[in-house]
């Protein structure tokens, strides 16, 4: 069905080995089909037939739960809350710290009671309005922090030069692109002449 997309987009719905699984198509179609052999069709073929994707697609077909991704996002928010704004280097450093924490704690074992039984906790899901159990994991030990501190000090001491007085921006710092709009700002004069006040329906007052 997936590879059939390459036939379908050209307007060919029955071909040598297979056919589309949709019903009859409406005749009054305005959108053009993609010609076979066109640049667009070649580009689409590269995506649809991408070997790496085809190998992994089975995993994604059965991947229906986003709970692990959600818990990963919640984990990032502990380090980089949306309530605060951070400069790029600070945000990046916080995300790195979150990743280090995540990676060194993601394979923790479930916490066990002295008798060896696994500890569960109840959790209420607001969306499904159901209670479920999840296994409590062992406490985080953050043992990697000391390793990092040691590495930082070692690198600092053996660097052979002091700390730079001013921090210089790295080449990949996105702040060099300035604010987001890629439309150059017109002059205030131009805007005054063209912009109509949304409230009153006429030009903005100039005096
Ligand atoms: Zn079709």
Task: Describe this entry's structure for a reader.
A hairpin with a 4-residue loop joins β1 and β2. It contains seven helices and two strands; from the N terminus they run αααααββαα. The radius of gyration is 29 Å and the shape is extended. It has helices spanning 5-8, 39-48, 51-61, 67-79, 88-105, 144-157, 188-194, and strands spanning 120-125, 130-135. It has a two-stranded antiparallel sheet with strand order 1-2. The chain folds into three domains: 5-61, no CATH class; 65-107, no CATH class; 110-155, no CATH class. It has 207 residues and is mainly α.
Q: Which term fits the overall shape?
A: extended
The percent range for strand residues is 5-15%
Whole-number tally of structural domains: 3
Counted by DSSP, the helix tally is 7
Strand-pairing-aware structural class: mainly alpha
Task: Name its key features.
7 helices; two-stranded antiparallel ribbon; 207 residues; mainly alpha
Brief overview:
The protein has 207 residues and is mainly α. It has 7 helices and 2 strands; from the N terminus they run αααααββαα.
SSE blueprint:
Layout: H1 5-8, H2 39-48, H3 51-61, H4 67-79, H5 88-105, E1 120-125, E2 130-135, H6 144-157, H7 188-194
The structure holds zinc ion (ZN).
């Amino acid at each position: 069905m997936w590879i059939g997309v390459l036939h379908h987009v050209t307007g060919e719905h029955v071909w040598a080995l297979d056919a589309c699984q949709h019903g009859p198509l409406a005749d009054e179609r305005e959108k053009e089909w993609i010609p076979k052999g066109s640049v667009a069709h070649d580009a689409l073929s590269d995506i649809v037939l991408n070997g790496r994707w085809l190998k992994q697609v089975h995993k994604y077909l059965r991947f229906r739960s986003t709970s692990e991704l959600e818990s990963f996002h919640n984990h990032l928010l502990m380090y980089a809350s949306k309530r605060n704004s951070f400069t790029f280097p600070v945000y990046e450093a916080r995300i790195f710290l979150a990743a280090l924490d995540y990676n060194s704690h993601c394979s923790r074992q479930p916490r066990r009671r002295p008798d060896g039984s696994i500890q569960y906790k109840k959790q209420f899901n607001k969306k499904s309005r159901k209670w479920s159990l999840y296994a409590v994991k062992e406490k985080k030990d953050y043992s990697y922090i000391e390793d990092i501190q040691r590495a930082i000090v070692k690198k600092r001491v053996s660097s052979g030069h002091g700390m730079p007085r001013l921090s210089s921006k790295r080449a990949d710092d996105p702040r060099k692109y300035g604010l987001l709009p890629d439309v150059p700002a017109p002059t205030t004069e131009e805007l005054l002449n063209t912009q109509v006040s949304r409230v009153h329906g006429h030009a903005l007052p100039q005096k």
